[in-house]
Design brief:
alpha+beta; 2 domains; 9-stranded mixed β-sheet; 9 strands; disordered C terminus; developmental protein; RCD1/SRO1-5; RST
Length: about 300
């Protein structure tokens, strides 16, 4: 989805805006060179529908602001992004028309980080590191995934989400537990957790300030427990001991020990959850695991 086909200036007129909007408008907007968007603006309407579709009535959308690239630093970032977009297009000439595959992605930020991110870029990878060292963004149709990494800024549940343009170029699959910090070869430009239906765009730390351009800031109020609901598993789940018992039916003890070791290592790195289980399962033959997963039944995560 392309949110950027709009007039260069905000739809708020210089004659003023409604009092209700002024009450919700972030006080830092002018300082950061952010321009308000209102209902009727193409970008506003697209983002609003996206948010309502993903979050329903559990969140209140307070305001949508567009980066005006008003400072010297932000304008330099815009030019750098355009240069790297052209470079990636030239790199892949002959591969489906030489496209840079620019997508939109969501990233949660703290209020205290906004100024430095918009002016200078991301200072360090902002994630749990389970898919390598880089900046993780959720596709524009996976806003709920982004909320996993967000935290309420105040008692009223205010959160800040950046919607950025992302140069993906040619993506490679990055497995859970990877320690990768740059493309595995010059052929690739970015990473994803799944090629067919990614829930994470992985922009390496070497690329995160040239291949990511924050374009919109969305301010919402969300309940404090939305992080937990966002993390609910969407697929069948089984406890690790149950998985080990099932796999022991057709794997030798030596391989079971390897799986247990990988599980413990990943649990220390990524924390408790289903991630380490399926990372270990991925070490095995996928069809065997899928079949056995079905045979032992499914459970519900608590």
């Amino acid at each position: 989805m392309d949110y950027s086909e709009q007039e260069e200036r905000s739809t708020i007129s210089e004659s003023g805006s409604s009092n209700s909007y002024d009450q919700q408008r972030p006080s830092f907007a002018d300082e950061l060179g952010l321009m308000e968007l209102l209902e009727g603006d193409r970008a506003y309407d697209l983002i609003y529908r996206n948010c309502k579709s993903a979050l329903g009535d559990q969140c209140e959308l307070l305001s949508i602001l567009r980066n005006g690239f008003a400072t010297v630093g932000s304008r330099a970032k815009l030019k750098a992004f355009q240069v790297f977009q052209e470079a990636v297009e030239m790199k892949h000439v002959g591969e489906g028309g030489g496209k840079a595959r620019v997508k939109y992605g969501w990233c949660a930020v703290k209020k205290t980080e906004l100024k430095s991110v918009l002016e200078y870029g991301f200072s360090q990878p902002r994630n749990d590191g389970c898919y390598g060292r880089g900046l993780y963004l959720s596709p524009d149709n996976a806003l709920l995934e982004c909320l996993k990494d967000s935290a309420a800024e105040s008692e009223d549940g205010m959160r800040f989400l950046l919607l950025s343009r992302v140069i993906l170029g040619k993506s490679e699959i990055v497995p859970l537990g990877s320690t990768q910090s740059c493309p595995s070869s010059p052929e690739f430009d970015s990473g994803v957790d799944d090629l067919a239906s990614p829930s994470k765009y992985i922009v390496w730390s070497t690329h995160m300030n040239t291949h990511v351009l924050p374009e919109f800031l969305v301010c919402i109020k969300a309940p404090f427990n939305i992080n937990r609901s966002a993390k609910r598993l969407r697929s069948p789940w089984m406890a690790f001991p149950v998985l080990i018992k099932a796999l022991s039916k057709f794997l030798p003890p030596s391989q079971i020990l390897i799986i247990q070791k990988h599980y413990k290592d990943q649990q220390k790195k990524c924390g408790a959850g289903d991630g380490p289980v399926w990372y270990c399962a991925a070490l095995l033959d996928e069809e065997d695991v899928r079949g056995d997963r079905t045979s032992v039944g499914t459970g519900t995560a608590t």
